[in-house]
């Protein structure tokens, strides 16, 4: 599980998620809004908050 909360610690959550999506089985985010942002950006890997 890759932790990408808080905008991937300032690195851009969507860009990091897209780069890691192939290798990470899931993502940890801080809140539902972050998970929604990833989903709206096309990330289909599960996100957990």
Automatic annotation (TrEMBL):
Residue ranges annotated for the Alanine racemase N-terminal domain, each copy included: 1-47
Any one GO molecular function term: pyridoxal phosphate binding
Keywords linked to the UniProt accession: Isomerase, Pyridoxal phosphate
Gene3D superfamilies named in the record: Alanine racemase
Entry keyword Isomerase: yes
UniProt superkingdom: Bacteria
InterPro entries linked to this entry: Ala_racemase (IPR000821), Ala_racemase_N (IPR001608), Ala_racemase_pyridoxalP-BS (IPR020622), PLP-binding_barrel (IPR029066)
Cofactor: pyridoxal 5'-phosphate
GO BP: D-alanine biosynthetic process
Annotated GO CC locations: cytosol
Protein known as: Alanine racemase N-terminal domain-containing protein
Species assigned in the record: Vreelandella sulfidaeris
């Amino acid at each position: 599980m890759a932790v990408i909360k808080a905008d991937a610690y300032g690195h851009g959550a969507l860009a990091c998620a897209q780069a890691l999506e192939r290798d990470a089985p899931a993502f940890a985010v801080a809140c539902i809004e972050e998970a929604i942002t990833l989903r709206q950006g096309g990330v289909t890997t599960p996100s957990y908050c």
